[in-house]
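Slide 14.
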Amino acid sequence: MGSVGAVSPPPPFPQGLLRAQSLGVWRGLRAPPALQQIPQAKSEHAKAEGTFQVTMLPGDGVGPELMHAVKEVFKAASVPVVFDEHHLSEVQNMASEEKLDEVVDSMKESKVALIGKIHTPMEYKGELASYDMRLRRKLDLFANVVHVKSLPGYQTRHNNLDLVIIREQTEGEYSSLEHESVRGVIECLKIITRAKSQRIAKFAFDYATKKGRSKVTAVHKANIMKLGDGLFLQCCREVAELYPKIKFDTIIIDNCCMQLVQNPYQFDVLVMPNLYGNIVDNLAAGLVGGAGVVPGESYSAEYAVFEMGARHPFAQAVGRNIANPTAMLLSATNMLRHLNLEFHSNLISDAVKKVIKGGKVRTRDLGGYSTTSDFVKSVIDSLHPHYGAHSGHGGLRHVPRFHPSRDRGPGSVGAAPPPGPSSSVIYGFPPINVGSAAPGGAPRAALY
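Slide 15: predicted structure.
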C-alpha cells in the first residue's frame, strides 16, 4: 500500500467497531425476543492489525469474477478486512474432506464468510450429500435469510417491494436420505423435527422483532403432508403465541407462489421449510431484477455466511465479463454491517445503489450492455463523493503534495475521475491504486 505525503498513522478503531455481532444464539423458546450478540472471535493476527479476518469461498461459475469485484471495491474503500481464501469445487475436482475441513477450521477462527455458489453436479457418484450441504451442516447454518427489496431507479412490474424470506436449510427435502426400496422404486425422505421447526420459527419472530416488522407468514403444504408439514405449522403457531405484537398468518405454498406474483405487497416476513424456501427465494428474486441483484445470508448460533440470495453459478457467463456483481457487493456490505463496520458498509452500498439508480451503467441481465468491469469502475468512481463531503477538497486539503483538482484519484480505474472529491483516504488510511490489481485477484489472506 502506498502513502500520501506525511499522513499520520490511522487512529485505533473504537471498541464498538471491533465487536462482531450476529443474529443471535437460539437456545430455547423462552429466550428474550431481542436478538442476542455473540462474542467476538477473530484471529489474534486480525486483532493486532485492527482488521477482521473473513473466510472467502469463490465457488463455481462466475463466483471468482464476482469475488474479484468485491476485492476491487474493498481496496478503493480501504475496508479493514483480511480475506482467508479457499477453493472448494466439485466440478473442478477441488473438493475433498481435507479441503472441507480447512474451510471449517478457517470459519472457526473467523466466524464470518463470504461465499459464491458451490455447484452441485446432478450425477450420482456414491455420495448423496453435496459439499455445499455438508459445509452448511458442519457449521449448522440453519437459517437462510433473503431480503427481497426493489432497487431505486430500476423499474419492474412491482416496485417498492420489501419482504424477507427465511428458510430452514438443514433438514426437510434436502436431508440426502434416498434409497431404492425395490427395483424401480426410489424413496426420498423428507425430515421435519420439532426442535428445528421451533428454532427456525423463533428465528423468524426474533428477526421480525429486531427489524421492526409486523407480520410473519408460515408457508406450508400441511393439507397434503399432514404429519411433516403439519408439525412445522404447529411449531410456528406455538412460537407465534410468544410474540403477541407480531401478526401471524399461514399460507399454502402453491397459493403463496401465485400471490407473490399477483400481490407481493401483502407479505412481510415469510418462514418455510427447505425446498419451499429455495423455490420462493428464486421466484421473489425475479420480481426485483433477478439473481444478480438480491443478497442473502445464512446463520447458525456461532457463524454468519454471506452469499447471493438466489444461488446460481451462471456458468454460461464465465470469462465473458458480463456477470452482474450487485448481489455479491450488497452481500459484502451486509457482512461489513455484521462486523459493525457501518461506515464502510454504507459507503459501498450507497455507491452500488447510486450506479443502478443513475441507469447509465447496467449489465445485460438488467437490460443494458455494460460489462462487469464497467459496473465495478462506476461503483468505485461513485465512492469518491463520500470522502470529505463537507469540504471542497474531498477531505484532503491537509495532505501535503496532493491537490484534488490536479492529481488523479487513487480509487479510479482506467479513466479520469468525475469532477469533485476523488480520494480513497479514509480516517488516515493510505490510498490504494485499484487499477494495479492482478486479473486473478489477490493472494490468499491479502489485506483490503
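Speaker note: The first strand starts at residue 52 and ends at 57.
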